[in-house]
Structure formats: C-alpha cells, structure tokens
Amino acid sequence: MKAAVVVFPGINRERDMARTLKLVSGTEPQMVWHADTALPAGTDLVVIPGGFSYGDYLRCGAIAARAPIMDAVRAHAGRGGLVLGVCNGFQILCESGLLPGVLMRNAALRFICKDVYLRVERSDTPFTRGYNAGQVIRVPVAHGEGNYVADSETVTRLEGDGRVAFRYVGPDGKLDPRWNINGATNAIAGILSERGNVLGLMPHPENHVEAAIGPTDGRGLFAGLTQHFAKVA
Amino acid sequence: MQLAEVAGGGNPRYLSHEMKARVTVTLKTGILDPQGKAIEGALKSLGVGGVASVRQGKVFDIEVDGTDRSRAEAALKEAAEKLLANTVIENYRVEVLG
Questions:
Q1: Fewest Cβ atoms closer than 10 Å to its Cβ: which of A2, A56, A117, B53?
Q2: What pTM was computed for the model?
C-alpha cells in the first residue's frame, strides 16, 4: 500500500500517522507538502492527519482545504482513489467539499481529549473491512470542534445510503447522549463519501495500534486498508 | 497642505485609490451556536438587562483596490463564497463603504 500523508503548517499528528502506516502496512508512507501540486506517482491512499492547520484560523480546516495540494487530492478522489482524513483531516475534507457537512464547536464548548467508544457501522468498505459490523472499538479523541452538523436532507441521505461509518456509543455499543461526547448529529463520528472512497473521522485510530502503549483497536482500520490493496494488487 | 506636498512627492500609498468594505458572516437560522449561547449566559449572569439571545458571527474589514464599486462587490462576493463563509452553515453580507 503506497500511502501519502499530506502535511500542512500547524498539523501535528503526521508522524503518529506515518509511524502507524509503516508499522501496520510495512511500507513507509511519503510525506507530501501542502504547497506541492502533485501526489507521488502510484499513490494508493492519501491521508490527511490531525492537528491545527493554520492555527484553526477562520474555521478549522478552511485554509488548508484551499491549499495547492488539495486539487491533486480532489483529482485522486475523483478517480476513485482512497482518501482518509482524521480529526483536522476530517475538518479539511468537509471544508474542501469532498465530504458533506461541517464540524462545529463541541456542544459543551470544551476541548475533549480522552478515549471514546465507537461502533463500526459496516465492514464492507476498504476502511472498515478489518472490523465486524456492529463491533465496538476504543480509540482516543482530541478535538474542540468535532460536533458533526449537516442539513437534515444531507443527514437523511447519509443515513439512508449507509454512509455513517462510525458512531459514538457506550462500551455496550448502545447509543446514549452521555457517550455522544461532542453533541454530533446522530452521534456521527465518521462518514463516507458518496462513492465510499473518502472517509473522515474525528477520533484517532492511529494512536491505538501498539500493545506497549495501550489498546490496539485502531489497528483494524490500517490492517483492513493494507489487505484491501494487497488484494487489489 | 503638508499632506499635499508629500503626495506631490510621489508617495504611491497616498496616491492609490482604495475603498473600504466589510463582509459580515453570520450563522444560518437553525444552526446551533454554542458559543453564542455561552456569551448569552454570561451576559445574563452579568445582569445585563433585556438580552433575549446572542448569535456570534464574524466581521472582515477589507480594503479594495480601485474605485469601481460593482467590481469591488463582485470580488468580495467571490471572497465570501470561496473562503470567508462556509455556506453550509453561514450567510454573508457584502458592503462597500466607499
């Protein structure tokens, strides 16, 4: 799996992401600078990592979404190429129009940094094939603006087309406002694009991949992607 | 008179024609605004009377080159559509103040 990690000024999770991609897929990803205009030849997966691109000025992800490299990312997605956005990466994908909706300030107005439980809503996508549908995983979040909002028509379409990939739930997998940490519409933690080739999620699966550090529930996402490309190749 | 002399000396900044403009970005009706709510709560706890509700927005003061108002309005509209506002959740208003 040839992955490219896009680096914007103010991003700070790109090394965690690169480390995890290398660890799980066995292949070192290429780092791509925001001012570049092309992705490395043969890129399978584009990853937009978390952080605070451009200091979250204007709106989270707004300025990064208009950076030169994003035209190449859009073209990659347009060809059906896979794109993964985590945290600020999810915000950037929404701002760039690759995913619908927007991530608003957390309902309780606080920055939230802790482990959460996610329910994997489906396992038949390249991103989630490493999990079972309905499986509950524990991964960390670290964000102030993760409250997913879209107009009701968009939300109905997302739900109807099965494009909600992850939801905030309790450890038992049940929905409960208590576990919907940021107040997201329908407890949405991650969504897929219409063609299913772009995934954005607020939590950080790349931070739970090594037993020496803690839970390894995030590993399935990267293992699934690696399998996907092994099969394609 | 002093200024005129400076201008006559060819200070390009003084000679350039600029218009002041303002783009105001506000949240659309129905979009929850937790920041506005927090400010509303703070105003109420300060005892500021008569505050029914607060919605927070953004103001951009922009200087535009030239003196063509309709061109300036078109440029500001483009700026708002492309970057200043996220039209999924926000409305914007453009004013050329002259």
A1: B53
A2: 0.91
